[in-house]
Amino acid sequence: MVVKVNQLVKRYGDLLALDHLSFEVAEGEIFGLLGPNGSGKTTAINCILSLLKYDKGDVSVFGKPMTPESNDLKRDIGIVMQEVAVFDELTVYENIDYFCGLYVPDKKARKLLVEEAIQFVGLEDFKKFYPKKLSGGLLRRLNIACGIAHKPKLIILDEPTVAVDPQSRNKILEGIVALNKQGATIIYTSHYMEEVEQICSRIMILDKGNIVATGTKDALKGMISLGEKITVETFDLTTAQVDAMRSLPNILEVIDQAGVLTIRSAKGKNNLENVLEALKREHISFGKIHSELPTLNDVFLEITGKELRD
């Protein structure tokens, strides 16, 4: 087991940030850590890294207890936090070389690692640029290169794609998957559900310092009542027509708004077929119709009762 957290308790005064938190991250996973703001995600990460002193519990990394003095363990950990942490006075190359040098003192070996990291994040044309001259997306790529240049076995990424353009986001996500295929175990937090759904092999949802759900994306989707969401482009529905749709079997909710009828159904067969038959039976004129299975957003909302950005 790469990371093992056991009965972790962290308080900030009267606020219980982590409430006897226990979980494990296996070797080779991309482990997604989700939760609304204030759920305890960043606190948990800082405790794993021994950057925060906690009240109770214990943390082990690579099978050994993690403490502030565990320099042997920290050499195999890469950290990419939400706030970009680079030196404005150093170029792209110099920044990566500096952070890599904290773990790799040999200059010859370090040079190869720095060049590889630059190629990995696609900054070959920006080696001599200073951070202030980089776009937000390129700056994020530099931040990642600084955290992974020394080839860590465990990489922790705390919202690495915040406020970046789609092209850079795709580049970053592709890079994370590539790092995982090269052998790195990854802990990944994000406010973008589609990212987590795209790359994470297992996901844990935190709320108020407690684990409210954990599993693969398919397992999480299986925990909720929602079966599918059907959206129908409609025209001038009457109250009776909307009520007729609400009376269909297996229907959880029907919303008629701005010419779109949104129908949320419970799990079961023939939901779409029943809706189509009812549209014809009630003489409802409609245009486009779309059916989609539950997303992680649906899971998160039903389990926590909150939007992710609450």
Structure explained in plain terms:
This protein has 310 residues and is of the alpha/beta class. It has 2 domains: 3-221, P-loop containing nucleotide triphosphate hydrolases (Rossmann fold); 226-293, Alpha-Beta Plaits (2-Layer Sandwich), CATH 3.30.70. It is 34% helix and 29% strand. It has 11 helices and 14 strands. It has helices spanning 41-48, 71-74, 92-101, 107-121, 136-148, 166-181, 193-199, 217-221, 239-246, 271-281, 296-304; strands at 3-12, 15-25, 30-34, 56-61, 64-65, 77-80, 154-158, 185-189, 202-207, 210-215, 226-234, 251-257, 260-266, 286-292. The strands form 3 sheets. It has a 6-stranded mixed β-sheet, sandwiched between helices. The chain has a 4-stranded antiparallel β-sheet with strand order 2-1-4-5, covered by helices on one side. A 4-stranded antiparallel β-sheet has the order 12-13-11-14, with helices on one face. A hairpin with a 2-residue loop joins strand 12 (251-257) and strand 13. The chain is elongated and about 75 Å long. The mean pLDDT is 92.
